[in-house]
Amino acid sequence: MAFVCVLDASDVDCDTFKNGDAWTVAFRIGADKELNLNYFAQVGLEIRGGGGLEYYFNIVKVDGDDSSEHTYWSGKETSSFIIVSDRERILNAICRATVWILSCAQPQEVYRITYDEHPTEKSLKKHELICEAFRQAGYQVVRGDPYGDKRIWWAHRLAGEPASTNPTLDDGEEGQYTMTGGHGRVRL
Amino acid sequence: MMPQRQVPGAEAPQPRMSRPEQIEFMEQAEERCRGYTQRWLADPAFRAALHRYDRDRSRDAPSLSEAPQ
Known about the structure:
The complex is a heterodimer of chains A (about 190) and B (about 70).
Chain A: E1 4-5, E2 13-19, E3 22-32, E4 37-47, E5 53-63, E6 68-72, H1 75-78, H2 84-105, E7 109-113, H3 121-136, E8 139-144, E9 152-157, E10 168-169, E11 183-187
Parallel strand pairs in A: 5-7
Antiparallel strand pairs in A: 1-3, 2-3, 2-11, 3-4, 4-5, 5-6, 7-9, 8-9, 10-11
Helix pairs in contact in A: 2-3
Chain B: E1 4-6, H1 19-27, H2 29-41, H3 44-50, H4 57-60
């Protein structure tokens, strides 16, 4: 048995969490039933010391046998067990979750940095899709010129730009999205 | 302030991050990001959501009454 992508072509079921100004969204992307493993994508916004928020995403492997978690930060790690077509579906879902979390948090400034040093062109294309998700959510995106080993992007929220999300609530009803105790479920 | 490359279609606002701050931001990125996720994993509600799909292996095992005598 191996990683099997469980993402639906149209819907992404997300758990959304808020703690102060920090937000995170998690959704299941795949499973290895034989090994009792589930895989989640996590998209987050955290308070940056110098102002604004920092955006990040990763893949979390959840082991149902020993209740442990392992986080993958680099596509170089996940490429060994997730095939290309599934990686594209996962990235698409991450982009949708990105628009969603930005519409929830509505930060004025968001900073983002590559986890890998010397990111490849392929990796930078992935980040360009994330930039597009930011624009879709009503942000201007500026990329810092490369120096050092990583790449930085900075996003600034445009006044009056509505975030383009149309989620349905967990119970399938249309209506106002609400959170209880800093947690809510939504279908994007 | 380091020069910024504008993404097509966007005007070029300047980030409020000096060059030394950007370098520090880069240098501490891995540790910082790992900390973010570790903090969420310490949240019982977040962990419960991640473990929602765990298969309970004890349910798969035959109970004593079902075991061959």
